[in-house]
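User: Structure tokens for this complex, please. No commentary.
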Amino acid sequence: MILAKVIGTVWATRKDEKLVGTKLQIVRPVDLEYADKEGFFVAVDVVGAGVGEIVLVCQGSSARQTSTTENRAVDATIMAIVDKLDVAI
Amino acid sequence: MILAKVIGTVWATRKDEKLVGTKLQIVRPVDLEYADKEGFFVAVDVVGAGVGEIVLVCQGSSARQTSTTENRAVDATIMAIVDKLDVAI
Amino acid sequence: MILAKVIGTVWATRKDEKLVGTKLQIVRPVDLEYADKEGFFVAVDVVGAGVGEIVLVCQGSSARQTSTTENRAVDATIMAIVDKLDVAI
Amino acid sequence: MILAKVIGTVWATRKDEKLVGTKLQIVRPVDLEYADKEGFFVAVDVVGAGVGEIVLVCQGSSARQTSTTENRAVDATIMAIVDKLDVAI
Amino acid sequence: MILAKVIGTVWATRKDEKLVGTKLQIVRPVDLEYADKEGFFVAVDVVGAGVGEIVLVCQGSSARQTSTTENRAVDATIMAIVDKLDVAI
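Assistant:
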């Protein structure tokens, strides 16, 4: 999973029928100090993450292993909201 | 999912039999202002996206989770047409 | 899927038993003018593509969604031979 | 699989229900001399790896092929603790 | 699949129970003249490849499509030993 920050939302009324009702969030990878890294992508939110929150994003087929994303054309899912990191080294 | 722009079409009469009838679109990744990024790849369109439209592309095994792409040799699918982005940060 | 050119063949007599009979082609990614890009990889051909032809290559689990590659240790498949590209933008 | 070092832990109380009880470790890829490489990501630990240990991380759908991660939204799993490397070339 | 050279072995006594008995080889990608490229990763060997041999490595879920790696947390498998390459272009 990668560490990312929710930075916005995608609006898309024309989409595959199985995606109706999913929330499409824009996420940007961040480093261990939560500073922005390069790039962004779009993930389905299944934990109610708001803009600005630090989250974990699961990618690939594993992104479909939640009740919200099962059997859907989703390759990235926000599956946890980060409380804090303990970095020891 | 990644944000991309439809820039053209691939014509291929000789293809795996299960791909007959699929529409193969050329897509180029774009940034949050819809400006072109590097590179391009080919995706099957399942939402009727035209050239120039901004779309979301789903990759990997999740690309097969639509009625058009199910059980087919497809690793990228255009599964939504973007209306607008709300970028808050 | 990515656009590539067939540039050669791999000979391998010692291989996983389920791969016997598959044709292992070397492919190099190309740009929209069919000029070589960096790198190369190996893909199983299921459409009879010859050396020099421009093809589409499907990667990941979707590479197994043809009758030739089903249930085999194959992560890249040539599943179409390109006739032409229409690039509009 | 890639070689990595466990460098910390992620705390996340709000997460997909199937992830409750999993241990989310932060790992950093290392080279053959165990020196840090760029970047980091988060993996579920199934072998009791502690901070500072050198481990193997399995990614993608294969990350779900353990009793701890089965059917869960997990795309990276620590599935071995490295004792030593024999590098001959 | 990618072309690589076997450069060593990983020893790991503490690992997921389904990985007991698998041979974990370190592989380094090579170019068409078998010269070393950057980086390395770890793959399970299912064809008896020795150190120094040039092999094909299959990645992702397809790495599990051999009798040795089926249902195991393995994301890269050495599934062929290369005899020679015919590069025509």
